[in-house]
Design a protein that fits this description.
The protein is mainly α. It has a single domain (61-296), classed as MetI-like fold, CATH 1.10.3720. 75% of the residues lie in helices and 1% in strands. The chain has 14 helices and 2 strands. α3 (62-92) packs antiparallel against α10 (209-224) and α7 packs antiparallel against α10 (209-224). The longest helix has 35 residues, at 262-296. It is globular, with a radius of gyration of 24 Å.
């Protein structure tokens, strides 16, 4: 029998659970099911089984998109997390002044629209009137590459922008984690004559490990969902969307939706779902193994 306290608790949980089911769980299940059908949005879907996945395997555009998505996550997330940790340690130091201003400046890219960020960086990297090429001209570089079109340069700059954008969010959370570290650990290390590097390695970094795990996992999930930054920086033209140097899975999904290939787009979504789950599970297992080894030692 459910008492009044349980009824009150369930009533508080009902609304967020309904939102979760309607906007997350249900679309996920429907998307997984739609990957087994061929449908253009009109009429009844046609069941095709695993045909959409076999189409993906044979599509020469799928593998570069998968590769770029994985590379983007692997290359952009760890540097952002590590740099944010180092900046947070510096800002958290007792001698540092102006912490509120620095936190605000670092966090601003997180709250600014990605569209605005993309257009500003497009202006900076423009081959005709860009600030970067103007600065390179001052030091004698007269023929720089076209940063937004030549080879892998656009993808390189997308990674740079993503790292720059993520640092502020990670830094703020690291500052919260550093504030929770017991000061007696630092006092004991100071008495033992530990150097700053040893304190950073053996006290600060291990104590901040839960936050590192959280930022790495969530950052990797966000990286696998990359779309808007690539779309804005490379442009919305069909030629740039077909460029295998900058194509990612979510941009590939968007293109299939515009073509009316909803089943194929859902199959790509399943690939992202599996990829995200595998990456998250692997990272959590690694962090758990390291924590176990550390506690055993």
């Amino acid at each position: 029998m459910i008492d009044r306290r349980s009824t009150t608790a369930y009533s508080f949980l009902a609304f967020p659970l309904a939102i979760l089911v309607i906007f997350t769980l249900a679309p996920t299940v429907l998307g997984l099911g739609l990957s087994l059908f061929q449908w253009d949005g009109h009429g009844a879907p046609s069941f095709v089984g695993l045909s959409n996945f076999s189409t993906l395997v044979r599509d020469p555009r799928f593998w570069p998109a998968l590769r770029n998505t994985v590379v983007f996550g692997v290359v952009s997330v760890p540097p952002a997390v590590v740099l944010a940790f180092l900046f947070a340690v510096a800002v958290h130091a007792r001698w540092f002044r102006g912490k509120a201003i620095i936190r605000t400046l670092f966090f601003m890219p997180t709250i600014i629209s990605v569209v605005a960020i993309g257009f500003v960086w497009r202006w900076l990297l423009d081959d005709q009137a860009g600030l970067l090429n103007w600065a390179l001209g001052l030091i004698g570089v007269t023929h720089p590459p076209n940063w937004l079109q030549d080879g892998y340069w656009p993808f390189f700059w997308i990674i740079v922008i993503a790292i720059w954008q993520k640092i502020g969010f990670c830094l703020v959370l690291y500052l919260a984690a550093l504030a929770g570290i017991n000061e007696t650990l630092y006092e004991a290390a100071e008495v033992d004559g530990a150097s700053r590097f040893e304190v950073l390695r053996h006290i600060t970094w291990p104590q901040a490990a839960p936050m590192t795990a959280f930022l790495t996992v969530t950052g990797m999930i966000s990286a696998f969902m990359i779309f808007d930054l690539v779309y804005v920086v490379t442009g919305s033209g069909a030629a740039m969307q077909e460029n295998n140097h900058t194509n990612v899975l979510n941009l590939y999904i968007y293109r299939q939706f515009t073509y009316g290939q909803l089943g194929l787009a859902s199959a790509i979504g399943v690939v992202i779902f599996v990829l995200t789950g595998a990456a998250t599970g692997t990272q959590l297992a690694l962090f758990r193994r390291r924590d176990t080894a550390g506690s055993g030692a």
